[in-house]
Design goal:
With about 300 residues, the chain is mainly beta. It has two helices and 24 strands. The protein has helices at about 1-15, 155-185, and strands at about 20, 20-25, 30-35, 40-45, 50-55, 60-65, 70-75, 80-85, 90, 95-100, 105, 115, 125-130, 135-140, 150-155, 195-200, 210, 215-220, 230-235, 240, 245-250, 250-255, 265-270, 270-275. The strands form six sheets. Strands 2-3-15-5-8-7 form a six-stranded mixed beta sheet, with no helix packed on it. Strands 1-4-14-13-6 form a five-stranded mixed beta sheet, with no helix packed on it. A hairpin with a 3-residue loop joins strand 13 and strand 14. The longest helix has 30 residues, at about 155-185. It is rod-shaped and about 130 Å long.
């Protein structure tokens, strides 16, 4: 019993596992391999045929090393490798051969020997480095129909990274839509109780409609109007300029005042319009940086 266990242990230690690319259902000569840096991939080539390896689209071949390069033609093009068995020419001065009796056979100086590809002598290994990965292969010669015409590599890590990027982008887009929906759909009562006095020849700076939402005051002008300067008019008959920004509401240009003054003066040259907010302070809304807890309003004052 102990001997059997020892044999199993030795086989486990010294055994080798090779990754054989899986054939596609359409044609078993077109194959797919899942990349693993710690695996050796078996490529079965056929004499007189080319085998192609396809790496990731963003990979570029850096180095190719083969254990028996004289017996294989290996070429690269961007992320593709083309492999073909080739005959090996043994030069006469390199040859030593014995006959059936064990006697050394001599060759003339110009007598070269061409050795055709064969399964026994053409088995070797191939290592390819790219800008991203290292690939290790066993190259075999076969006469069967299971040779590798094309091997496409797939990359689980890359797919996972792409899926994560897509998920992150989708999450961000959903959050932005949620915030936009909150800002657009928030139900805030509006105070439209405004009156205005338009001085002579000042119609082109008059307001088409006005309201406040408890935080800001909104003055709307149609496209034919001139956007005036905006001042607050207080009880001491003093004018102070107001902080504003511009936004759009369909065909109207809206001047947004960053407070709710009770009296407003619009000026443009000699033109003057006075506006009173008769409902100021009645439409109370809790003052926040913005209407959404997810957004912080920052005013950029030039």
């Amino acid at each position: 019993m102990k001997k059997v266990i020892l044999l199993i242990t030795i086989f486990t230690i010294y055994g080798f596992c090779v990754n054989i690319p899986k054939p596609t259902k359409e044609d078993k000569r077109i194959q797919v391999a899942e990349f693993n840096a710690n695996e050796v991939y078996e490529i079965k080539a056929k004499n007189g045929y080319i085998s192609m390896l396809k790496f990731a689209h963003d990979e570029r071949i850096i180095n190719i090393v083969c254990g028996f390069l004289e017996g294989w033609s290996i070429k690269s093009d961007t992320n593709f490798i083309f492999i073909k068995p080739q005959a090996y020419i043994a030069k006469a001065q390199e040859q030593t051969m014995v006959d059936s009796n064990g006697n050394l056979v001599s060759f003339s100086d110009n007598q070269d020997v061409v050795i055709q590809p064969n399964a026994k002598d053409w088995k070797t290994n191939l290592i390819i480095t790219t800008n991203k990965r290292i690939y290790t292969f066993d190259l075999l010669l076969t006469a069967k129909l299971d040779s590798s015409y094309r091997v496409d590599f797939k990359y689980t890590d890359d797919i996972a990274k792409v899926n994560q990027l897509i998920a992150n982008k989708t999450k961000l887009e959903n959050e932005e839509k949620e915030i936009e929906q909150e800002l657009n759909n928030i139900n805030v009562p509006k105070n439209y109780h405004f009156v205005q006095h338009v001085n002579k020849n000042s119609e082109d700076i008059s307001v088409d409609y006005a309201y406040d939402d408890g935080v800001f005051t909104y003055l709307a002008f149609n496209t034919n109007k001139t956007i005036p300067s905006v001042f607050e008019y207080d009880k001491q008959n003093k004018e102070s300029i107001l902080n504003t920004h511009i936004t759009k509401d369909n065909d109207y240009t809206v001047l947004v005042i960053h407070k709710i003054p009770k009296q407003i003066l619009l000026r443009s040259g000699d033109k003057l319009v006075g506006i009173k907010n008769l409902g100021a302070g009645k439409n109370l809304y809790p003052l926040k940086n913005t209407k959404s807890d997810k957004v912080e309003r920052v005013i950029n004052e030039q």
